[in-house]
Write a structure and sequence with these properties.
The chain is α+β, with helices and mostly antiparallel strands. It contains six helices and nine strands.
């Protein structure tokens, strides 16, 4: 499955989301139940409709905050807003970008551009059950990918608590670096996935079977540190931003 970074310019391989399909139903013209919709149902419809109407989800998901934490040198493409029917992850709003890390090499002959990419997804659903099912599918897929990593690689896989129904951060440290963060709240969920070329210091450590080198990376961060930042700062701040915007 490929992910569109911009409208038609580039596609990359997606890792993670399973079954992110919009389940928000249009209002029916048929007769309503005699009791009418409950206040909870009205709130779900209002939340989903509001999210669908956001014209630039990048303003909500704040890719610049993530870029600052990654210490990127510059954007390659994006950040670009993709609407409900654009790119992959149909039925969700997306903010995708790719980037370059700074030059960490003194060897002019080496490939000095260490690319990375980010998928930021906000997916509304017609109800809490549908959103919970999609969240579980997404988490299960990400966790399975971690289980398939070599034993000598470190992994992070933990649930996180906050002002949401469920949340998790997952990360791998080794030859296949990826960090994922997600949370479920009411009838929507957020999913962030970051992939990037392996940290030279980490791959050297793997080659030497020296786990201590994981503590002295070449990059300005490690995947576990990034997972901690998602849990303590980014996701709580994002949740507050979304909640405030929904109340406008």
């Amino acid at each position: 499955m490929s992910v569109q970074i911009t409208g038609n310019r580039r596609q990359r391989t997606a890792v993670g989301i399973v079954g992110l399909a919009l389940l928000v139903s249009a209002c029916s013209g048929g007769a309503a139940d005699s009791d009418g919709p409950t206040s909870e149902e009205n709130e779900v419809d209002s939340t989903s409709s509001a999210i669908q109407g956001w014209t630039d989800v990048c303003e909500v998901l704040d890719p610049d905050a993530l870029s600052e934490q990654l210490h990127i040198a510059e954007y390659d493409e994006g950040p670009n807003h993709l609407g409900m029917n654009e790119g992959n992850f149909p039925g969700a709003l997306k903010c995708n970008f790719s980037f370059y890390f700074p030059d960490y090499s003194d060897d002019e002959s080496e490939d000095r551009d260490r690319n990375g990419w980010v998928y930021m997804v906000l997916a509304p659903y017609s109800g809490a059950d549908e959103a919970a099912d999609a969240y579980q599918d997404t988490y299960d897929d990400a966790a399975q990918q971690l289980r398939e990593r070599p034993d000598k690689e470190q992994v992070v896989d933990r649930e996180i608590s906050g002002d949401w129904d469920r949340g998790a951060v997952l990360a791998s440290v080794g030859s296949g670096n990826a960090t994922r963060a997600m949370y479920l709240k009411d009838s929507y969920f957020v999913y962030i996935e970051i992939g990037y070329r392996p940290d030279p210091g980490v791959t050297d450590g793997l080659a030497l079977s020296n786990m201590e080198t994981f503590e002295d990376p070449t990059y300005e961060f490690t995947p576990p540190e990034l997972a901690d930042w998602f849990e303590s700062e980014y996701l709580p701040g994002l949740d507050e931003t979304i909640t405030t915007k929904l109340e406008e």
